[in-house]
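A protein record pairs a chain with a discrete description of its three-dimensional fold. The following entry can be read in just this way:
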Amino acid sequence: MVVFETANELLGRVDAPLGVSDWVRIDQDRIDGFAQVTGDDQWIHVDPERARTGPFGATIAHGYLTVSLANLFLPQIIEVRGISMGVNVGCDNIRFLAPVRVGSRLRGSGLLLRAEEAKGGSVQATVRITVEIEGEARPACVLDAISRYYP
């Protein structure tokens, strides 16, 4: 994790590599839970028997489940101190590059792409999160997470 004592310190650190998160295992319970809350119960996610003979050889995590892990990874990658709050603004350039098979372990690594002054003395930062799959050459996903830090 990279720690910034103030949000303004982000302004001078564009293109700076940030930390990496802990690994998280993607088990069938997590996939099933995501399917339940989103209504996406396609067989490639929730039917292990059928998925064994499918294109991936096992069930796979939903792409949006993988993206949602940005919320878990980001505070492990970067910490901004001296703020009243930080909020998620959105994501840009989300790309799914490799399937996440059940049982895989994922982690996020970060790169500070942009930081700029915003309304009310806040700083808006864009962090590229690369969601790595343990033991795989290609990442599962790459996304640019946008956060705003308020003084």
Remarks:
- The radius of gyration is 17 Å.
